[in-house]
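User:
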Amino acid sequence: TLLMLGSYYLLSLQSARNAIVNFNKRSAVTMAKLALDNDDVLLHMPRLANQHPALLPVMLAEQFNGYAFILLDGTKLISNSLPDEVQLSAEAQGNGFQFVLQQSGMPPSIISFPAAPEPIEVAGLTQPGLYWLPLAWLDLGQQQDRLASQLNNRFMQLFLLLSLLAVFLAWLGARWLLRPVHQLLQGFHALQQGHLDQRIHSERRDEMGQLFQGFNHLADGLQRLDQQYRQMSADIAHELRTPLAAVVARLEAMQDGVVSTEPAQLSQLQTDVTRISRIIDDLNLLSLTEAGQLQLTLQAADVSALLNELQQSYQAQADATAVQLIVQVEQGLTVHADATRLRQVLSNLLNNAFRYGSSGGVVKLSAQHADGCIEICVEDKGPGLSDALLAKLFQRFNHSRSQGGSGLGLAICYQLCQLMQADIAARPVAGGGLCICISLPGSAAG
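Assistant: Predicted structure:
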């Protein structure tokens, strides 16, 4: 807009300057051609001095073709030789006069004479004076009107030209500005059609480039969620199919009389149904944690008391499986967490340790203050895991160490730790075994 306005101003100014200069040049040429010497006029005055004042301008006009003469007496207009259709009015200005010549249908012509009129001798007048002017000046107003019309036309041409140029530039600018928007719309349309691999490749570093990066991140997240959903659906179907198939097969066998309905068979059915129910409960809890809808009460919790309670709960199981349960905890440790959910996480870890690591004969539960955090670890001496399996340890339906269980316990532990702003990680133990540690915000007494 500023460029167009500035161009219009400069071009209009230049056009007006050129038109005025040309007009002045033409006027100067006309004046030079029509210049009438005073001596030529005064030479004829003695023989006309006795003529009637009203006839003097007409007689001079006949003598000097192409000129009009105006006779004054002081400041009073006496007579003139102008055509009848021209109306003349005069007004004294300083030593000279200003004449206004008006013709019907034409703009007035204003002619100023700054000098006093040429003094002459005319009978019957006390202060006679004479002015003369070329008849070509009668259309001076028309020439000025043509100049104004020429300027208006020129300005309009410039305005139309610059307007067309502005529209063209605006169209180009709009295409250039809207091109990335169209790319973005095409990308979203592709996502709506289910093409989650759609990406926008651009080297832009401006706001649109940031918007493209945001779109690509969104597409990455959607594709990742879609893959997780598909994998989860397949895993859920797989995990539920096995116990359901066992229940259906046993019930059909009972109906056919192949298997009796004695308590042992019913107990097995109850075990399979319980396993299905546990998988469903775990899935529900996992979905709540991932969606952030599980309400936690984060407050100070005594780590020593919590670990002592767990030792009492699992000591009988340790004695029954001939496993040495070792609990090592520093006194005065306090963590900022939900005590109930933290107990659930540690219970899951201990269950896994007894289930998969009891062959090593030792399960260790410890807590200590490290680097401004409280670190609680569950360690066993069972079969170790490779780096590849460790990387997948906290994923859904993971059976890295055994085919037992629902495969959701460690995934639930991971999500609960995230909600408590805690870190959970697993590392191998020298000589075989696995150690899973939880780092929570907390403090140590003293």
